């Protein structure tokens, strides 16, 4: 939770990035494998940041691409391929890397909720910060 808050606050935009969504799990005991959390955005913003192809290439092994495709579809992004080419080269796949950069880093979810697919527990997103805190009876 702390990592997410720090990540969101580094930027001048206040929203949760889709990169962050790709890393979140339900913190409730017994539901750690309930991945991915369903994303229901109600307010999104876009913030242009400088493109860095090497950074995007470095991120790709760390993300679940199918989850990214799902999250992208919830915010209206439909231009990503169903599968990534392997290997990705920063000089040959510039357009793809720019689309991934935009999707992972420039789209911010400011309001909405995350929903666990197994427990159906909702985690609100307010002012760009997902509230993953548990009630006492959930610990």
Automatic annotation (TrEMBL):
InterPro entries assigned: Trm112, Trm112-like
Molecular functions (GO terms): protein heterodimerization activity
Domain of life: Eukaryota
Protein name in the entry: Multifunctional methyltransferase subunit TRM112-like protein
GO biological process: one example: tRNA methylation
Family (UniProt): Belongs to the TRM112 family.
TM region(s), chain numbering: none
Coiled coil: none
PANTHER family tied to this protein: MULTIFUNCTIONAL METHYLTRANSFERASE SUBUNIT TRM112-LIKE PROTEIN (PTHR12773:SF0), UPF0315 PROTEIN-RELATED (PTHR12773)
